[in-house]
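Re: the request from the purification team.
They wanted to know what the chain is likely to look like in 3D before they choose a buffer screen. I agreed to run a prediction and write the result into the notebook, where they can find it.
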Amino acid sequence: MKFGAIKKFDVADGEGVRVSLFVSGCRNCCPGCFQPQTWNFDYGEDFTSSTEEEILKSLAPSHIKGFSLLGGEPFEEENQVVLAPFLEKLKITYPEKDIWCWTGYIYEKDLLSGGKKHTEYTERMLNCIDFLVDGPFIQEKRNLMLKFRGSENQRLLKLKNGKIVDIQ
């Protein structure tokens, strides 16, 4: 897997000060996407064990509230293989820190068993994620007043053990 950027002091992608990872590769290719360069699976740098350690070290300070995972698309099959064990490691290392994730796919339709993006890794990822923003960015529904979302069709889902407990 490749990634486009790591932000070690991000206040825009989730609540509080966060460490954010922008993965590469996206088949949604939403018109108006704010990072179309990340659609390319070969964009950026290789995600290695050194990258993992850099992120984990960056999460250590007490003022860092959590980790945010964006793209590209975290739930592309190629990315899930790498991200599932990494998110599990992160959750074990920092159980007090929350994990936010953005996906252009829809939780019920695409990510659950039988969905087009469900793999043997999907539930492992969902079990680690505390907040999931789902749904494609739709330029005609763009709304700059939405918190943590770009278009009105997107939802902010609070998850517990991979299941929705609240929808905003």
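For the purification team: Residues 77-93 form the longest helix (17 residues).
Please add any questions underneath this entry.
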